[in-house]
Amino acid sequence: QSALTQPASVSGSPGQSITISCTGTNSDVGAYNYVSWHQQHPGKVPKVMIYDVSNRPSGVSNRFSGSKSGNTASLTISGLQAEDEADYYCSSYTRSSTWVFGGGTKLTVL
Amino acid sequence: QVQLQESGPGLVKPSETLSLTCTVSGGSVSSGSYYWSWIRQPPGKGLEWIGYIYYSGSTSYNPSLKSRVTISVDTSKNQFSLKLSSVTAADTAVYYCARLFCSRTSCFYGIWGQGTMVTVSS
C-alpha cells in the first residue's frame, strides 16, 4: 500500500487560515469516512485532532475542521496560532482492512 | 483513563528479532470495539502503520512488513506484543502502541503510548 500524499510543508501567519490536503485512492480515502488527522509536536506523541473526516474530539479547538471530496481529504486550521506549529498526519482505513498514513506536513506559523 | 506503555530492548542487533510489549492500564484488552496496534516512526520521518490485533486474536498487518511481523495478545496480562524478525538499520524507529476504536460508524486512533526508541545496530 502506498502512503497517502500530503504536501511536505505549509505556512501561514497568525490569524490566517491554512488547508492541508491528503490524497489517496478509491481504496482508502475515497472508500470510507474513516479519515483522521493527527498533530505531532517535536518529540511528542501524535494527538488526534479530527476523526471520521470531520469530527473533533472533546477538547480540540473548533479552529480545526476536516472535510473530504472524492479521494482527497483536507484539514483546515483557522485563526492560526503559534502553538499550531507542528507536523500533521492524515490516516485512512483501507479496503484491505489495513491503515495507511500520509507522509506528514510540517506547518510553520510565520 | 486508559493508558498504554511500551517496553522492550532499546538496542537490537541486525538480523535478530525485535520484541516489544505494550501494557494496557485503566482498561481491558478484551474490550470489544478496540483493536490494539503498533505504529512506528523512523527518526525524522513519518508514521508507518505496522498492524493490529483484536482480543480474539484476529490480526491485520502492513503488507510491506507482513512476512516479518507477528502481533499477539495476552489477555491474562492485559498486554499485547510485537515481534519483528530479521531487522536491519531501516527498522530503527520510535515504536508506538496505540488503541484503535472502531464501531459501525466510527474508526480512529484515539490513544497512543509514549513510544519507545529501538535502534538496530551491532
Quick description:
Chain A is mainly β. Chain A is built from no helices and 9 strands.
- What fraction, in percent, of the residue positions of chain B are helical? under 10%
| Principal-axis shape of chain B | globular
Question: Low-confidence parts of chain A lasting 5 or more residues at pLDDT below 50?
Answer: none
Tell me the total number of β-strands of chain B. Answer: 11
What string gives the helices and strands of chain A in order?
Answer: EEEEEEEEE
Structure description:
The complex is a heterodimer of chains A (110) and B (122). Chain A is mainly β and 110 residues long. In chain A, 0% of the residues lie in helices and 44% in strands. Chain A is built from no helices and nine strands. In chain A, strands 1, 3, 4, 7, 8 and 9 form a six-stranded mixed sheet that branches. Chain A starts with 8 loop residues before the first strand and ends with a strand. With 122 residues, chain B is mainly β. Chain B has strands spanning 3-7, 11-12, 18-25, 34-41, 48-53, 59-61, 69-74, 79-84, 93-102, 107-112, 116-120. Chain B is globular and about 45 Å long. At the A-B interface, strand 7 and strand 8 of A face strand 5 and strand 10 of B.
Write the layout of secondary structure elements.
The complex is a heterodimer of chains A (110) and B (122).
Chain A: E1 9-12, E2 18-23, E3 35-40, E4 47-50, E5 64-69, E6 72-77, E7 86-93, E8 99-101, E9 105-109
Parallel strand pairs in A: 1-9
Antiparallel strand pairs in A: 2-6, 3-4, 3-7, 5-6, 7-8, 7-9
Chain B: E1 3-7, E2 11-12, E3 18-25, E4 34-41, E5 48-53, E6 59-61, E7 69-74, E8 79-84, E9 93-102, E10 107-112, E11 116-120
Parallel strand pairs in B: 2-11
Antiparallel strand pairs in B: 1-3, 3-8, 4-5, 4-9, 5-6, 7-8, 9-10, 9-11
